[in-house]
Task: structure prediction
Amino acid sequence: MKPSHRISTLTGGGSDGWDVFYRARAMIAAGTPVTELTIGEHDIRTHPTILDAMHRSALSGHTGYAMVPGTQHLRDTVAARIAQRTGVPTTAANIMITPGGQSALFAAHHATCDDGDIACYIDPYYATYPGTIRAVGAVPKAIVTTPDTAFQPTEKALENCAGARSLLINTPNNPTGVVYSGQTLKHIAQATRDHDLWLISDEVYDTQIWEGTHLSPRALPGMADRVLVVGSMSKSHAMTGSRVGWVCGPAPIIEHMITLATHTTYGVPGYIQDAAVFALTARPELEAEVAAPFKRRRAIAMDLLGQQTIIKAIPNGGAMYLMLDIRATGLSGETFANALLETHHIATMPGESFGTAAAGHIRVAMTIDDTAFKAALRRLLTFAQTLAS
Ligand code: PMP
Result:
């Protein structure tokens, strides 16, 4: 029996650029120690107080079907958080709780794009973006950026959104760590108005800001009616495995997404939602605690990078990644990453894994302990130095 065309073409085919990652995993399985700077997941686990809250909730009986849109308490809590951060009046009617940001990205595209519609996204991009767009029957279109603007889309590049139905942005950004400037967001807002687009704003790294400020396009004048914000507890609270996030937008489209959830996810477990409420209300200091290791490692990286001239870093104002320009070595990101794995048993992600724009770069996830991180980065920089000379 044949699977659907939609499901069998979801990834778009071709090499997915994850070969280095799989090679590293194969080396580890064969007993070779590899320093992995690949995956965007914390090296700490969910805080025990959050797990206690989860446990208490489950024991008290919150294990049945929860409300499909999310519990009133969590929707109210997320709405208050967004209202406070954006200054835009936001209520539970603007919020649907989802099993993680990924599910929110799917729901947002499903709710905004019809079959064959063009849905834009910014290259370099988070791995699932084009597949998520294909999964709803829309056609992904990359808006390509360049390293000289720190991979922020320019006014000119955004002209390529003409004729599309939606634009997906992500700030702070994975894979680049870049925090979009006020100017960039102004251009984005203008482009979405000029071309009458939905703007889907992936803000799952909004608590990890090292420089500058996080600006949500929901906060820009006249934008709240066309913006769908995607949020998540995964990165902010090291709750990747709990699968809890949200989508925030105009109430009528949230209603449609709730209908979609009724026919797909059927909501998020109540005890997970209660734990999320606890994390957001009783322990607000946890966000900074979870972000702190990345801030420290970024400082370590800036210090080491400042001592050499071969590798340039894309200015990363946030998130858990460093995007390094390795073009001075004369290698592609992929060749460099493969050689680094082979020679020093350090695994990084080639820029080519994230589209075409970040070719000649590698992404380093700052997700191992400080000492090991510093040692690995030192070896990486020395390796680049050797190649360049
Ligand atoms: N968006 C971006 C940019 C991400 O990096 C990730 C996870 N790596 C997600 C969305 C999805 O996260 P989750 O589903 O765990 O909330």
In short: The mean pLDDT is 96.
